[in-house]
Amino acid sequence: MKVVLAGGGTAGHIEPALATAEAVVRADPEAQVTLLGTERGLEVRLVPERGYELALIPPVPLPRRPTPDLLRLPLRVRAAVRRTTEVLRSHHADVLVGFGGYVALPAYMAARRLGVPIVVHEANAKPGLANRVGARFTSFVGVASPGIDLPHAEHVGIPLRRSIALLDRDTSRAEGRAFFGLDPSLPTLLVFGGSQGARRINEATAGALPALLDAGFQVLHAVGQGNVDAAAEAAAASGIAAAVGPRPRYVPVPYIDRMDLAYAAADLAVCRAGAITCAELAAVGLPAVYVPLPHGNGEQRFNALPTVSAGGGVLVPDGELNLERLAAEVIPLLGDRARLDAMGAAAVTLGRRDADDRLVDMVRRAAAQKSVGG
Questions:
Q1: 163-348 matches 2-160+353-373 in CATH topology
Q2: Are 35 and 2 in contact (CB under 8 A)?
Q3: Residues marked as binding for UDP-N-acetyl-alpha-D-glucosamine?
Q4: 2-160+353-373 CATH choice from 3.40.50.2000, 3.30.70.360, 3.30.1050.10, 1.20.120.790
Q5: Least crowded by CB within 10 Å, which of 70, 139, 172, 242?
Q6: pLDDT tens digit string along 139-157?
Q7: Residue 261, pLDDT score
């Protein structure tokens, strides 16, 4: 099987594409997998690191509102479709799998032009433009959760990294806490906000640190690249020595590469509500206080709502988060083991650890259409 995956741009598109690529190769070791991307996206680094071929196409940013760029959009789309058509032809693609974003739109159009079967995967609760277009071209549409409004939607979940999908938090807890230098016995809060951190979450956490530590908790905080010194200074201003001693109770780090061990170490998370984050936390059964980023069409809030409604998390609007609110939400939760266990059990009912295999099954069914049709 020759598979082309269109999932460039942000980690929210790239990670599910890479997880799917790995699942394709597990199912068919002879499969040929190529990822589409642009020179501007994270895929330039992430795809080669995972050992897959990356084919570059011209970027086609999709304006959210009328701007002068909107007038140039048809020309950009045409150039990207032309280049994507060349990639699909030269690779003799059996199927095109799109994950949304500005890489997927020209890919869907090129595949339709060539008669290459299309599979669409939508991670967000509110589909973007590219996938709304792509879903009109195919009956193979995989979605992250029930109720996502796309034609032919089939609930498959979000393909996750194997280190997350196979994680057993209970058996890995000691390893996770040792990896980050945390105390093996203290209730642990994990705070993160994406690769660059989240300023509002960082500020609220810094302000709430004295109360959190006084309550007997410890904090692992991914503050974002370039923010470690500021986080340490904020902690010091509160009389807290960050990352000092054999077992510091406040550990600020720029970025967490081993999210599996961070999830294992934690009893509760405070985080944004990106689609991947929500899927990972549900899959591993980690309760969370979700602080949706208030941008775009409000998709982060909708991403978190199924878990929150099921009792697996708490939702705090971004504009309402401050040190008092963070402490008020976190301290009662971290001090209540029974409630944390109940929230984790509720969250895991929504998790899909086998989403990658489910999506690959859909990919194979779509590819079979091409074989039947010649």
A1: yes
A2: no
A3: 10-12, 124, 161, 195, 256, 300
A4: 3.40.50.2000
A5: 70
A6: 999 999 888 999 999 999 9
A7: 98
